[in-house]
Write a structure and sequence with these properties.
The protein is mainly beta and 485 residues long. The protein has four domains: 10-183, no CATH class; 215-244, no CATH class; 249-352, Immunoglobulins (Immunoglobulin-like, Sandwich), CATH 2.60.40.10; 359-465, Sandwich (Immunoglobulin-like). The chain is built from one helix and 37 strands. It has one helix spanning 119-125, and strands at 10-17, 23-25, 31-38, 42-50, 61-62, 67-74, 83-86, 90-92, 96-98, 110-117, 133-139, 149-156, 167-169, 176-183, 218-221, 224-227, 230-233, 237-240, 249-256, 263-271, 277-285, 304-312, 315-321, 329-338, 341-344, 349-352, 359-364, 372-377, 384-389, 392-397, 402-405, 412-414, 417-420, 431-434, 437-439, 444-451, 463-465. The strands form twelve sheets. Strands 7, 8, 10, 11, 12 and 14 form a six-stranded antiparallel beta sheet that branches. Strands 21, 22, 24, 25 and 26 form a five-stranded antiparallel beta sheet that branches. Strands 3-4-1-6 form a four-stranded antiparallel beta sheet, with no helix packed on it. A hairpin with a 2-residue loop joins strand 16 (224-227) and strand 17 (230-233). The protein is rod-shaped, with a radius of gyration of 51 Å.
């Protein structure tokens, strides 16, 4: 193991031995990356682990006469996904150990290439791949064909760029195995990637702002402090910045609690665009309009709007509207606003207000002896009317401004008393009548309501009325026993 073994560093072990026998014992904390053979002449193994109170040495066992290996310590690797990509190991029996292709998907990876080659050939003619830096050459110390040499090289890579360009060369070699891996860095700061304050600081928690971050980006952060002994860094933490804010998304639903001049409109902020909305409301009119787009409600084309201002997240909301014209179709769209603009519901909703109560209602006293006539002014948008007599509904009728109640109390007649003279005249009998009268029908209290498809209006004003009487006529009758001969 390296002389300095900090916890949290990445350790990588590469071992090559001179036969194809298996490794019989590997430390339990090591994670295998690749183990394989090149024919019967060479077996290689690659393992890694994250340091945690590391000992001075580890032992890997396997039946072999000759073997060699090395352990690398890498600082600054990603804490949880340090091994970013692994190439497919290659083998061969010629003089060139080809570096396997590996394509990292992280920024600024460290590329490592490992090869196992018989020592005598590498010792005499070995060359690292062009563009790669040699890291180590470990040999078994025996200059024989069946000895083994473990070789490593490195170079800096870039995201989405293949590393498979180059070979380890050893003239005359008759066995080799190679593999490539990409190491993800913990963070690669630029000169702008820190926020620092200078003063005299003791032990304790502190915080620093980070500005200029990119929306929707993944960041890695370490805190640090400095004194005369040098810099000290804390553990690495990660976070994602929220995606860039956009305009909200709003839908509209059917109105509720509809009366003749008031209603409740309903909407839903289904997406706040990544930040709370500062406004939400409704635009409405007696005429239909197209989607206003990203404009303020006053410029939407709708004649009216009602709005709330505060901090609003996603979810359903309502807005009451008033002073509506009775019996009229109302069109509306819900809307919301954040720093990125306005959004109006794609769907325009419409509803019909209830009609107003009829005005000018009268019950005409004595208009007819056959019925009581009622009259009123028509209500806008009403399709039916119903008159009530003493609170009893008399049935819905169509669009009309009059109704005759023939079920009202009928008029009555008081017959009075008849008188005939006795013997006063030789040529006649004088007849007379007293106490007779004609009486109007019973007085009733009337009102009227209007309705349309949405519902009924309130009551009109009330008025009283009754059936009238006609002129009285009389008919005298004489008994049959009194007829003249």
């Amino acid at each position: 193991m390296p002389a300095i073994r900090p916890d949290g560093d990445l350790y990588i072990a590469w071992v090559a031995k001179d036969d194809d026998d298996a490794f019989t014992s590997v430390p339990g904390n090591w994670v295998e990356i690749d183990v394989g053979v090149s024919g019967s002449l060479l077996r290689c193994g690659l393992w890694y682990w994250i340091g945690d109170s590391e000992p001075e040495s580890y032992t890997i066992e396997g039946d072999s006469e000759e073997w060699s290996g090395a352990i690398l310590r890498i600082s600054g690797a990603h804490a949880t996904t340090s091994i970013n990509k692994i190439g497919v190991a290659t083998t061969g029996t010629d003089a060139t150990a080809e570096i396997p292709e590996v394509t990292p998907d992280c920024d600024n990876p460290l590329l490592l290439a490992f090869a196992g080659i018989p020592w005598i050939f590498w010792n005499e003619t070995g060359q690292y791949p062009d563009g790669w830096d040699g890291l180590f050459t470990q040999n078994s110390g025996v200059a024989e064909d069946d000895s083994a040499n473990a070789i490593g090289a490195s170079k800096s890579g870039t995201k989405d760029v293949s590393s498979g360009a180059g070979t380890f060369t050893a003239s005359g070699s008759d066995a080799w195995r190679a593999i490539t891996i990409a190491i993800a860095p913990a963070m690669v700061p630029s000169t702008d990637d820190y926020s620092e304050e200078t003063d005299s600081f003791g032990v304790g928690a502190f915080e620093r702002p980070m500005t200029g971050l990119t929306p929707g980006e993944h960041y890695y952060v370490k805190a640090y402090a400095y004194n005369s002994a040098g810099y000290g860094y804390g553990g690495e933490v990660e976070f994602d910045t929220p995606a860039a804010a956009g305009p909200p998304t709003v839908t509209a639903q059917a109105a509720s609690l509809i009366e003749n001049t008031t209603a409740t409109t309903n909407g839903n902020i289904t997406d706040d665009g990544g930040e709370d909305c500062d406004k939400r409301g409704v635009v409405y009119d007696t005429e239909t309009h197209v989607d206003p787009g990203d404009v303020a409600p006053g410029a939407s084309g709708y004649a009216n709007f009602a709005e709330d201002t505060d901090g609003f997240g996603e979810g359903a909301f309502t807005k009451a509207i008033s002073s509506l014209p009775p019996g009229t179709t109302i069109y509306y769209r819900m809307y919301a606003h954040n720093s990125e603009g306005y959004d109006y519901s794609n769907t325009e909703i419409s509803f019909l207000t209830k009609p107003a109560a009829p005005t000018g209602f009268q019950a005409l006293d004595g208009y007819s002896y056959a019925y009581v006539r009622t009259v009123w002014n028509l209500s806008t948008g009403a399709t039916q009317y119903q008159v009530y007599r003493d609170g009893t509904p008399l049935g819905w009728v169509g669009i009309t401004a009059t109704f005759d109640d023939d079920g009202a109390g009928a008029p009555t007649v008081t017959p009075g008393d008849a008188d005939a003279s006795d013997g006063l005249y030789i040529d006649k009998v004088a007849l007379s009548l007293s106490g007779q009268s004609a009486n109007v029908g019973a007085t009733h209290t009337y009102k009227v309501r209007a309705r349309n498809a949405t519902g009924e209006s309130g009551d009109s004003n009330m008025d009283t009325g009754y059936r009238g009487v006609g002129a009285l006529t009389y008919q005298w009758q004489r008994s049959s026993g009194d007829e003249e001969p």
